[in-house]
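tool_call predict_complex ligand=adenosine monophosphate
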Amino acid sequence: MNSEATPSPAVLILLGPPGAGKGTQARMLEQRFGLVQLSTGDLLRAAVAAGSEAGKAAKAVMEAGGLVSDQIVINILRDRLTEPDCAKGVILDGFPRTTVQAQALDHLLGESRQKINAAISLEVDDAAMVARISGRYTCGKCGEGYHDSFKAPAQDGICDKCGAADMKRRADDNAETVGSRLEAYHAQTAPLIDYYRDKGVLKSVDAMGEITTIASAMAKLADQAMS
Ligand code: AMP
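tool_result ok
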């Protein structure tokens, strides 16, 4: 036994339908544990904004609420994982979304002798997701999330956290697209719950309550999984 071996960086996966709160919870875990949040949705939106080949191929699929091709997403994630900050450990938010992606992740982690500490499934009611998604927006400067009905800033249009007046709504956060995104989740991503249960790393949280209550439950699970 080598007691001086450096522990490999932690890998946490957040699973859940659109609107379950993966991004919000990932940011809270990031701050609490010093990990890096990797959102394939954010990486793809950046690729679309930059007009890269991957972004051009992804744009229409994202607007329609479908899943971008495995190859594009796997390449984007693989590149991001090689950046030095990922050595702190990562929280995967929105990846993997298909069995092919989950297998590719196993392969990538195997190459660097890393393992998945936990795949945390955020359990929510589909019916509530449409209302959650259709009203949400974020500060374009610091990424703080807001909602028309559940969390308005103290001063309309001004971020409570950083003071910027740069609120943004995602193009795919509308009632029409949410249906397709939920369908894609159930058809292609929900089977990953069994995939990770079979690997012995699945954890679940009730994600219908208060953000801070869910965050405490997630932090407890993450702490156990990383110790
Ligand atoms: P998100 O920000 O995670 O809700 O992702 C927004 C959109 O990006 C999704 O509706 C998909 O079109 C695309 N996307 C994000 N992550 C993936 C992924 N792992 N596989 C395929 N498409 C993805």
